[in-house]
Amino acid sequence: MSTEEFLQANEQYAANFNKPDRSLFKNMIIVTCMDPRLNPYEQLGLKFGEAIHIRNAGGSAKEALRSIMVAQHFIGVNGTISIFHHKDCGMSRVTTSQMRDLVKKATPGRDDVAAEVDTIDFHHIVHIEGSVKADVKFLTESPLVLKGTKITGWVYDVDTGKISKVDEAIAVGA
Amino acid sequence: MSTEEFLQANEQYAANFNKPDRSLFKNMIIVTCMDPRLNPYEQLGLKFGEAIHIRNAGGSAKEALRSIMVAQHFIGVNGTISIFHHKDCGMSRVTTSQMRDLVKKATPGRDDVAAEVDTIDFHHIVHIEGSVKADVKFLTESPLVLKGTKITGWVYDVDTGKISKVDEAIAVGA
Predict the structure, then answer these.
(1) Is B86 annotated to bind ligand?
(2) Which residues 7-66 in chain B show a CB within 8 A of chain A?
(3) Considering only CA atoms, which of A60, A48, A52 is closest in space to residue A84?
(4) Who is most buried in A17, A46, B37, B70, counting CB within 10 A?
C-alpha cells in the first residue's frame, strides 16, 4: 500500500471512529512474532483496546522486556503475559551467525558494520516449543517482571490457524 | 480473556481458516507502539498477510532494528518502512530516569536489579513529531538498513482515529 492508500483507508476508518473501552486497557500483554501471517485480533478474538501487543522477529520475550516493564510498572497492567511463537517462523530458519554473515555480505568493506552486527543477538529459534518454554522461564524468573504475574506460552500453527498452549507459570519477581 | 476464551475464539477462527496470499508477504514493514488503542489492520486498511508488523513501547525504530534486519536481509522484504508514533503515548509521559526509579522502588534492596535497570534506555519521547522524525533519520542513515528503502513517518491521533504523515526519506545504506 502506498501513502495515498494508507490515507484513503484511514479516512474511511476515522469517519466511523469510536474510542475503545478504557476499562480494557490494563487486561493483558501479548507477545508475538512480526510475521504477516499473525493477526491476533482475528486469531484470538481480541476486542479493540483489550491487549498491549508487542511484536518482534520471533516473538522474543527478551527483546520485549523493556516494553513489558513500561506496561507493568508505568501503565499498571496487571493481567497475564501470553507469549506466542509460531510454526515455520523465519527465526527458526536462520541463525544469529547466518544473519551476521548476510549483513556483512551486503555491506562489503565496512569493518564498522561487521563489528556492530557481531554484537547483535538475533534470538534465533532452535525448537519452537522449546523456545516458548525458554521465554516463559525467562519472564518467570526475571526480577524485572512483577511477582505473581501469570505467564502463558503458546504455539500458533500458520497452516491450520490453530493455537495450542505449551506452558504456564507464575512470575517469582524480585 | 482467559486461556479458555483464547481457545474458544481460536476454534471458531480455525474452523474458517484461509491462508493469506503469499505474494503480499514482502510488501512492507510497519513499526507502531504496543498501545491497545492501535490496530493497524483497521486503521490502515491492511489486508491479512500484507505487512511485517513490529510493535514495542513507543514504536521505537532503534529497538525495531534487529527485526528490520531480519525482514530485509533474510526474508527479502523490499518495500517501505513506515514508522507510526501516536498522541498521548505512555512513552511521552514517562522518562527513562523515571522508569528506572519506578522499577527500583518496586524491587527494594536489590542492587543487582538497580544496576541492570540503569543500563536500559527506555526510548522515551519528548515531542511526538520530533520523535517520528528522529526515528526516520535513524533508519535513513543506518548502514544496517538496505540502501534505497523508502522510510515514511506518521502520527496517529488516538482521539480522532486519523493518521498524518510527518516525514519521508530514502535510506542511504552502507
Answers:
(1) yes
(2) 7-14, 17, 19-20, 24-25, 27-28, 34-37, 39, 41-46, 48-57, 63-64, 66
(3) A60
(4) B70
Split at pLDDT 50, 70, 90, the class of B84 is very high
B3-58 pLDDT, tens digit per residue, is 899 999 999 999 999 999 999 999 999 999 999 999 999 999 999 999 999 999 99
Alpha-helical regions (H) of chain A: 3-15, 40-44, 61-69, 96-106, 111-117, 128-141
> Sheet of B163-170: strands edge to edge?
A163-170, A150-156, A81-86, A29-33, A52-56, B52-56, B29-33, B81-86, B150-156, B163-170
One-letter amino acid at A122 equals: F
Name residue, grid cell 507493568: A72
Q: In Å, how far are A45, A100, B48, B125, B173 from B42, measured between CA atoms?
A: 14, 35, 11, 25, 32
ipTM exceeding cut-off 0.95 for this assembly: yes
From CA B90, how far away is CA B57, in angstroms rounded?
Answer: 8
Per-residue DSSP letter, A146: P
Q: What is the pLDDT of residue A3?
A: 86
Residue B155 pLDDT = 98
Please state, in angstroms and rounded to a whole number, the distance separating the CA atoms of residues A136 and A62: 10
Asked whether the beta carbons of residue B10 and residue A54 sit closer than 8 angstroms, the reply is: no
Rounded CA-CA distance A76/A25 in Å is 9
Residue numbers in the known binding site of A for Zn(2+) are 33, 35, 86, 89
**Cβ–Cβ contacts within 10 Å for residue B8, how many?**
13
Is the minimum CB–CB distance between A106 and chain B shorter than 8 Å? yes
H helix count then E strand count, chain A: 6, 5
Residue A52: enclosing H or E segment and its boundaries?
A: strand A52-56
Grid coordinates representing A170?
507464575
A40 near A32, Cβ under 8 Å?
yes
Rounded to a whole number, what is the distance in angstroms from the first to the last CA of chain A? 46
Compute CA distances B98 → A44, A70, B8, B77, B124, whole Å.
34, 11, 40, 37, 10
Q: Mean pLDDT per segment of 10 residues, for chain A of length 174 residues?
A: 91 96 93 97 95 98 98 96 98 98 95 96 97 98 97 98 98 95
